[in-house]
Amino acid sequence: MLERAMGLFEAKGMKLTDLRRRVLTEIAASHQALGAYEILDRLSTKGPRLAPISVYRAIDALHAAGLVHRLESRNAFFACHSHHEPDRDQVFLACEKCGRVAEIQGEQVFAALNALVAKAHFQLRRSVTEMTGTCAACQSRT
């Protein structure tokens, strides 16, 4: 993940600072979406307490580089494990039991939605679809 991060930051003319690396490491270590204050608390157990704005800025840079996604319904962030443009249309699956979040391909879904949007004469910038339910691991535990 860090090697990919270095490449993406370099390609965008950005720097992978120590704080950005530490924030990415915390996000990537979790399979759940983490809020900025959760990340802040995790980092504070490993060093001095940081200002929330510092963590938010690091998250913004990681998001701009395409390394993390924002789960908008929870205002939380999770690691992106595939390489794609950060502004592409996205489908996220969020487990209501364990909190895990996954990203899946959704081209067919968005093709149908885009056709409907075009009929409404609406200019769409980007689509994010969040779906909640129960992941396979939690289903097998019941």
Give a verbal description of the structure:
With 142 residues, this protein is an alpha+beta fold. It has two domains: 2-79, Arc Repressor Mutant, subunit A; 90-140, 2-Layer Sandwich (Dna Ligase, domain 1), CATH 3.30.1490.190. The chain is built from six helices and five strands; from the N terminus they run ααααββββαβα. The strands form two sheets. Strands 4-3-5 form a three-stranded mixed beta sheet, with no helix packed on it. A hairpin with a 5-residue loop joins strand 3 (90-95) and strand 4 (101-104). Helix 3 crosses helix 4 (52-65). The two termini are 33 Å apart.
Q: Regarding CATH, which class of the largest domain?
A: Mainly Alpha
Distance linking N and C termini: 33 Å
In percent terms, what proportion of residues is strand?
15-25%
> Quick check: average pLDDT?
90
Query: Number of DSSP helices?
Result: 6
Helix content: 40-55%
CATH architecture type of the largest domain:
Orthogonal Bundle
Order of helical and strand elements: HHHHEEEEHEH
Kindly report the CATH topology of the largest domain.
Arc Repressor Mutant, subunit A
Estimated radius of gyration: 17 Å
Q: Could you say how many structural domains there are in total?
A: 2
Low-confidence stretches: none
Task: Record the strand order, biggest sheet.
Answer: 4-3-5
Structural class by sheet pairing and helices: alpha+beta
Under CATH, the homologous superfamily of the largest domain reads Winged helix-like DNA-binding domain superfamily/Winged helix DNA-binding domain
Tertiary shape: globular
Q: What does this entry show, briefly?
A:
By secondary structure, this protein is of the alpha+beta class. It has helices at 2-11, 18-28, 36-44, 52-65, 107-119, 136-140; strands at residues 68-71, 76-79, 90-95, 101-104, 128-133. Strands 4-3-5 form a three-stranded mixed sheet, with no helix packed on it. It has a two-stranded antiparallel sheet with strand order 1-2.
